[in-house]
């Protein structure tokens, strides 16, 4: 998850990052791709748009904006096992 430290900065796609939005960073999916992300612990899903590159550390497969992470109820844990699929 990424949020306040990136608020208002330009993403790799050229858009301005909004931590409340439903966006994500992924290492290879095309910018503008819409991806359904499901938190496997609680079954909650959100649709995000790929606007940036990452994650840059760890074994994560995607970095979600704070808004998307909150909707998936993973703010407290910071990470979660998720499934990615086309909407």
What's this entry about, in short?
The protein is 7% helix and 26% strand. The chain contains one helix and five strands, in the order ββββαβ.
Q: How would you portray this structure in words?
A:
A hairpin with a 5-residue loop joins strand 2 and strand 3 (45-52). It is globular, with a radius of gyration of 12 Å. It is mainly beta and 87 residues long. Strands 4-1-3-2-5 form a 5-stranded mixed beta sheet. The model has no long low-confidence stretch (mean pLDDT 93). Helices cover 7% and strands 26% of the residues. The protein contains 1 helix and 5 strands.
Provide the fold topology.
Blueprint: E1 23-25, E2 34-39, E3 45-52, E4 63-64, H1 66-71, E5 82-85
Parallel strand pairs: 1-3
Antiparallel strand pairs: 1-4, 2-3, 2-5
Provide the descriptors you would attach to this structure in a database record:
87 residues; globular; single chain; five-stranded mixed sheet
Mean pLDDT across residues: 93
The percent range for helix content is under 10%
pLDDT < 50 runs, ≥5 residues: none
- What about the largest sheet? 5 strands, mixed
Q: What coarse outline follows from CA principal-axis ratios?
A: globular
> What is the radius of gyration computed over CA atoms, rounded to a whole number of angstroms?
12 Å
Structural class: mainly beta
How many helices in DSSP terms? 1
Strand order of the largest sheet: 4-1-3-2-5
Series of H and E elements: EEEEHE
Distance between the termini: 21 Å
Kindly estimate the percentage of residues that lie in beta strands according to DSSP: 25-35%
Total beta strand runs: 5
């Amino acid at each position: 998850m990424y949020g306040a430290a990136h608020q208002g900065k330009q993403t790799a796609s050229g858009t301005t990052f909004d931590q409340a939005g439903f966006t994500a960073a992924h290492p290879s999916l095309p910018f503008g791709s819409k991806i359904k992300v499901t938190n496997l612990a609680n079954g909650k899903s959100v649709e995000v748009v790929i606007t940036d590159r990452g994650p840059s550390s760890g074994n994560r497969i995607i970095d979600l904006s704070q808004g998307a992470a909150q909707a998936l109820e993973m703010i407290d844990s910071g990470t979660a096992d998720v499934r990615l699929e086309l909407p």
